[in-house]
Design a protein that fits this description.
Elements lengths: L3 E5 L3 H12 L3 E5 L5 H15 L14 E3 L3 H5 L4 E4 L5 H14 L5 E4 L6 H5 L8 E5 L9 E5 L6 H13 L3 E4 L9 H17 L5 H19 L2 H7 L4 H9 L18 H15 L4 H21 L3 H13 L10 E7 L13 H18 L4 H5 L2 E12 L8 E12 L2 E10 L2 E14 L4 E2 L4 H15 L19
Parallel strand pairs: 1-2, 1-4, 2-3, 4-5, 5-6, 7-8
Antiparallel strand pairs: 6-7, 9-11, 10-13, 11-12, 12-13, 13-14
Bound molecules: 1,4-dihydronicotinamide adenine dinucleotide (NAI) and the ligand C[N+](C)(C)CC(=O)CC(=O)[O-].
Organism: Pseudohalocynthiibacter aestuariivivens
Keywords: Cytoplasm, NAD, Oxidoreductase
GO molecular function, one term: carnitine 3-dehydrogenase activity
Length: about 475
Amino acid sequence: MTKRATIVGGGVIGGGWAARFLLMGWDVRVFDPDPEAERKIGEVLDNARRSLPGLSDVAMPAEGKLSFHETISEAVAGSDWIQESVPERLDLKRKVYQTLQEHCSPDAVIGSSTSGFKPSELQGCATRPAQIVVTHPFNPVYLLPLIELVTTEKNDAALIERAKDIITSLGMFPLHLKKEIDAHIADRFLEAVWREALWLIKDGIATTEEIDNAIRYGFGLRWGQMGLFETYRVAGGEAGMKHFIAQFGPCLEWPWTKLMDVPELTDELVDMIADQSDAQSGAYTIRELERIRDNNLVAMMRALKTQDWGAGALLRVQDKRMMPAEPDLLKPIVTVSRAVPLDWTDYNGHMNEARYVQAFGDGTDKFMEFVGCDEDYIANGGSYFTAETHIRYIDELNAGARIRVETICVLGEGKKMHLFHQMFEGDRLVATGEMMLIHVSLKTRRASNPAPHIEEKLAKVAAAHAALPRPEGIGRAIGVIGVKA
Ligand SMILES: NC(=O)C1=CN([C@@H]2O[C@H](COP(=O)(O)OP(=O)(O)OC[C@H]3O[C@@H](n4cnc5c(N)ncnc54)[C@H](O)[C@@H]3O)[C@@H](O)[C@H]2O)C=CC1
Ligand SMILES: C[N+](C)(C)CC(=O)CC(=O)[O-]
């Protein structure tokens, strides 16, 4: 059954939550008094549609339904999750909880996006404090997986587990804090860094651009994959963390930081920061910067996925959760069902030719796994090599397009495996890929017969597929086009 989420406050963060829920198949109801809310959320959703689905290498759920409502009572009716993302003012948040708790189900989870308030502060004047938790996200919510889940003794274990399960099912990572504190873990940390940056600008030591360069060309890249402590462990050399602390611990006593002092945000300092930021990034609109940020995040997260590390490891686990059941042999087998990732597009603004080979290659890998040539079999020394490929590029594909590869086994006999893949976007045929593969021994690197269980399964699939209508194009070669003098 489709789940329903309510977004109360649909600005930068509420819009991101709406996109995350919708693209993970939830119906979403929004309440926001801003007359521009629908347009703004529409633009966030456009960004999300081109970036989030491409992180996954399997089919995402069908997108949920989005609706906008005039009253909180209408918006929260029948919702399993209510995400509050109104401005960071305690009085406003408390007022919102009073109204929404008059109308929402007592079983719904109410999550607050608050960057800094403790859950006990939010629960303070509530009718049912037990229902309210902090679920602090990171911008853009549709791409970044971290959710700081902060609870109090008023929240029971069952609600906390439900909250964790839902966050996980959205492809996110619930980091459940042991204790509530102002600003949770991440914002306490980010604010320390921000204070230092403000001092560096005020003291005329660095501009906004120089500070960003110091982050993005160096430690920012390290943090994105290993964080702080794992990075410093490595920096300690073979002796690891103890040596690192022995060497750099004393520096903590030296006047390196200005951590507890905050420069006064005078008009002069604010103008200086804003002017430097305009000089650094003013050539782009905010929407353009959002798209650049999303392109980069997708490329980095997909790279981490190949390494099965950090945020990339989470993506792999999420793919496993969404993996389809066994296919029906009386139809072509769907071997790829995914969205075109941003990093598969090229200077022509469409999916690059090499990515068609990749998608068909992924289809072949899936088919091999299906007939028993899986990770264990390959580790034991048997596999298939592709001997010949013929691709027809029939139509264009854009980033975010949902594609499906349907695979027919034309021949599965002895060492030979002949596959014909058809790639569709909806009903539109966009490409075909024909592949001849030969079974090999990975020890001798020569052709060899597959194990009996593979031969048997392959023969069974080939026989079933022989009864299917033959798609146009099987066995086609490139014709010689006459060139007139
Ligand atoms: N912007 C950021 O980077 C992050 C913000 N947050 C937190 O998310 C929350 C929202 O922040 P933003 O989205 O940045 O603010 P925003 O200003 O972009 O959006 C707030 C939205 O709430 C709406 N609103 C105001 N009063 C309302 C009411 N009574 N009922 C329903 N909607 C109402 C406004 O019309 C606006 O669309 C804050 O608690 C903030 O601390 C959390 C993570 C990151
Ligand atoms: C600046 N901020 C405190 C609103 C930041 C956050 O809360 C998280 C983020 O996305 O950086």
